[in-house]
Design a protein that fits this description.
Strand order of the largest sheet of chain A: 6-7-8-3-9-10
CATH topology of chain B: ABC transporter involved in vitamin B12 uptake, BtuC
Number of strands of chain B: 0
Largest sheet of chain B: none
CATH class of chain B: Mainly Alpha
Distance between the termini of chain B: 51 Å
Largest interface: A-B, 41 and 31 residues
Number of helices of chain A: 8
Largest sheet of chain A: 6 strands, mixed
Distance between the termini of chain A: 31 Å
Number of strands of chain A: 10
Oligomer: heterodimer
Strand content of chain A: 25-35%
Order of helices and strands of chain B: HHHHHHHHHHHH
Helix content of chain B: over 70%
CATH class of the largest domain in chain A: Alpha Beta
CATH topology of the largest domain in chain A: Rossmann fold
CATH superfamily of the largest domain in chain A: P-loop containing nucleotide triphosphate hydrolases
CATH superfamily of chain B: ABC transporter involved in vitamin B12 uptake, BtuC
Structural class of chain A: alpha/beta
Structural class of chain B: mainly alpha
Number of helices of chain B: 12
CATH architecture of the largest domain in chain A: 3-Layer(aba) Sandwich
Chain lengths: 247, 281
């Protein structure tokens, strides 16, 4: 396709909170079938940008979503895999409860129907999770298990935009590779646009197609190799001192 | 109503069901306790027990407003004020100026103090002190019907909206990513609590209504391993405390509300020790 594959167009986005300008004049395109890496130091506004995309905070400017045929989406499905899910670890919500609540209107406090159990199993297996997780409480999961459950949750229904916020901070090395293989698969086979927030530049270089450096506004963006070579990125991540050999 | 009374006489031919006020109280308990068990699950999950307590306190101002307006039925003035009160708390918390426990505490104090001041000015507070501890034995047949309507309405909300409530309670950002209107649901849930608390406060009492809402669910959380067992235990413990507390209060001559709460509290501590024991095992 020669026409634009824009999924998400962010134009002139600004966010003020508690009197401080956290984001200003952010312009960014996320395309279908690409992993856009959002990099930046702590406090650069990465999480705030995600919250704006989720519609959780007021902002100025515009965010427009498109499906892969170019139609504007009023209520896009957004898949969101947060960095560290803040939740009450003592809550008696099981993995099955959480996945079912997303799949059906049938109230989970009355239990689960066979159909939902089968679908939840399939959702977990798709992300390499074991069906034995289903009866576990969310608070009893390990970091890697929770990440997998959150990804399964995010992928149903098929999202128009997938937001990954430092998705692998709690996962071991093998888990990380599995996770990124899966995300890469989703990107290729479903033309899924993905916004990846990461501190780990080696992951960004390995898996992302484009990158953007955020420091309250977009400092530089483009193909990942080019962005990595810019002075702004080298400086922000101290790569000059390290010899810049991470590429 | 006479058929229901006859049914109670056949099923429960005991001393304590002899009088019609005890039959009414039993019916009211059979409707109130599942309601509290059900709504309590989300009050505890959303960490809103402080909020529901404040709503209970606001009832005093609600009564005072009713007195000023010259009505005999305080239900509407209590409910109306509690709704304004609940949405007020929600709006002030939403502004993010102070922490929510401070804000709720401020509202709670105002609701209590304003009620005391107005009521004492208009003819002595003592007349209304019955509201502080409540009396389930005064419940009337038409009020039982109202409780039934509320129970049906809450069960319907729980059937159609529970999944969304639950996802919102896990994490608001995660829920909004699924296009769940988190803030709208939050306000709806506050309204449900406001209606429930003000509708039953006459019988349960301002001082203990929150215990009845929180204790069964808190005990159930110690035992539950899923949402289903959480609801099962919460409703079960709530109903058991209600019925056994009512019977006990009849024979011991104690206030029913307080007795019911004590039974629920004993169950809470039992569940606490059971959960500690099973975690170690």
């Amino acid at each position: 396709m020669a026409d634009c594959k824009c999924s998400t167009e962010i134009r002139g986005l600004g966010v003020r909170r508690h009197g401080a300008q956290i984001l200003h004049d952010v312009n960014l395109d996320i395309h279908h079938g690409e992993i856009m890496a959002l990099i930046g130091q702590n406090g650069a506004g990465k999480s705030t940008l995600l919250k704006a995309l989720l519609g959780r905070i007021p902002y100025t400017g515009s965010i427009v979503f498109h499906d892969h045929t170019g139609n504007v989406l009023k209520n896009p499905h957004i898949g969101y895999v947060p960095q560290n899910l803040v939740f009450d670890r003592a809550t008696p919500v099981t993995v099955q409860d959480m996945l079912s609540a997303n799949l059906t209107r049938f109230p989970v406090w009355l239990g689960h129907r066979k159909e939902q159990e089968a679908r939840a199993t399939a959702m977990l297996q798709r992300v390499g999770g074991s069906p034995s997780l289903l009866p576990k409480r969310l608070g009893a999961l390990s970091g890697g298990e929770l990440q997998r459950v959150l990804l399964a949750f995010a992928l149903e229904p098929m999202p128009d935009l997938l937001l990954l916020d430092e998705p692998v901070s709690a996962v071991d090395r093998r888990g990380i590779e599995l996770f990124y293989d899966l995300v890469t698969h989703m990107r290729k086979h479903h033309e899924m646009p993905i916004l990846l927030v990461s501190h780990d530049l080696s992951h960004v270089v390995k898996y992302a197609s484009r990158a953007a450096l955020l420091n309250h506004t977009i400092v530089v963006s483009g193909p990942v190799q080019q962005v990595m070579k810019t002075d702004a990125v080298q400086e922000a991540f101290g790569l000059k001192l390290a010899g810049g050999d991470s590429l | 109503m006479t058929q229901i009374y006859a049914l109670i006489d056949t099923l429960l031919p005991f001393d304590w069901t002899e009088f019609s006020y005890m039959k009414n109280a039993l019916l009211a308990i059979l409707l109130i306790t599942p309601l509290f068990g059900l709504v309590g699950t989300m009050v505890v999950n959303n960490k809103m027990s402080f909020f529901s307590d404040a709503l209970g306190h606001s009832a005093l101002t609600g009564i005072a407003i009713g007195v000023l307006l010259g009505t005999d039925n305080y239900l509407l003035s209590m409910m109306g004020f509690a709704l304004v009160f609940a949405l007020g708390i929600s709006a002030v918390i939403g502004s993010g100026v102070s922490s929510s426990d401070t804000i709720i505490s401020v509202f709670s104090s105002v609701g209590m103090a304003l009620g005391i001041v107005i009521l004492s000015a208009t003819g002595g507070f003592a007349k209304y002190s019955a509201y502080l501890i409540g009396d389930i034995l005064t419940v009337q047949p038409e009020e039982i019907l109202m409780l039934l309507v509320i129970l049906v309405a809450v069960v319907l909300v729980w059937i159609f909206l529970f999944n969304k409530f639950m996802l919102s309670s896990i994490n608001a950002d995660l829920a909004s990513s699924k296009n769940i209107p988190v803030n709208l649901l939050q306000n709806l849930f506050m309204i449900i609590i406001a209606v429930l608390v003000t509708a039953t406060i006459k019988w349960v009492g301002i001082l203990i209504i929150n215990s009845l809402l929180v204790l069964p669910a808190a005990a159930a959380r110690n035992l539950a391993r899923s949402m289903r067992s959480y609801h099962f235990w919460s409703i079960g413990i709530s109903m058991f405390s209600g019925i056994s507390g009512l019977i006990f209060s009849y024979y011991a001559g104690t206030a029913a509300g307080g007795t019911i709460v004590l039974v629920a509290a004993v169950i809470f501590f039992l569940s606490f020790f059971i959960s500690r024991h099973t975690e170690r095992a």
